[in-house]
Structures are given as C-alpha cells and as structure tokens.
Amino acid sequence: MLARSGPPVDVVPVRRDDDTAEVDVLLCDPVGHTVQIEEYLTLVAALTTAPVLVFTWSSSPSSVRRALAAGARGFLSKGASSGDLASAIETVARGGLMSPAASRRARTPKGVAELSAREAEVLDLICAGMSNLEIADQLFVSVNSVKTYVRQIYQKIGVSRRAQAVAWGLAHGF
Fold this sequence. Notes:
The protein is mainly alpha-helical. It is built from seven helices and three strands.
C-alpha cells in the first residue's frame, strides 16, 4: 500500500523480546486488546524510542484523545488512503503531530440543530454497536449522562428508536 504513495518504506515487525527496535515510526493498533489504550501504548512505546502512530478502525474522539494523551504522536483511521498514511508517517517521523479534528460535527439535515461534540461522540459509539453502559465506561461518564445525550440526539435528528439513530448515523458518516 505504501509503495504506491511515495518513497519506499521498509516495514519491520517489532516484538516484545527485541531490544530497543531501530525504526523511524512505530505503527500500532491499540484497540481491541485486553488492556486499556493507555496501558497498551505504554507497553508499545517501551519497545523503541521512535514516535508512535496509532492506525486503527476506531476513530471516536475519545479514542483519539486517550491515545494522544498517552503519548502517541499521531492517530489515523484505517479507512484513510495510502497517501494519507504515507503523509502521516512522514509527519510523525519529522516530529510533527498527526491528529484528526478534535470534534466531529454531524452533517445534519435542514431544520435539525447541529450535534455537540459529545453528542457526535455518543452517536459514533451507538453506531459502533455499544450499549449505554459500554458508552459510559468508554467516556468515563455515568449511564444517566449517556441516556441524556441519547435523548438529545434523538430529538435533534428526529428519531425515536436506537435502530433509527444508527441508520441516521451511518447515512451521515458515523
């Protein structure tokens, strides 16, 4: 994928039993492991002195915020093009920071109020199939707060059920 996007790139695996690995950028996916994002990135960062670029399918603002707070120098969705990936690797290798916009705004139909950053984040997690309890755990808020966000989302996008909210969210880029 990267060969078509610019100068040649050597991809080398980095293992736990390696001494400090000689790489320019460490590319990893911390989502889906048995440990939290922060703990995973701490373990990965110990493998090398290179900056870490998170490359994952999860692009929720919470995941971005947590990864960057844990020391990652970049965050990129696996849905990005090969050119975007190459650019992100180059940016991080030069010492820059690669991050998607901190707040994602929904594209809303006419007559519907725009979602807040937190509402967009909750809708993103609903579309990912999470329950209210899972969303509360992910965002470090109470279940009652999540229920309030869900009611506000339903009202703003004009739906009355979770399945309708998922369909609306997927149709609008969530």
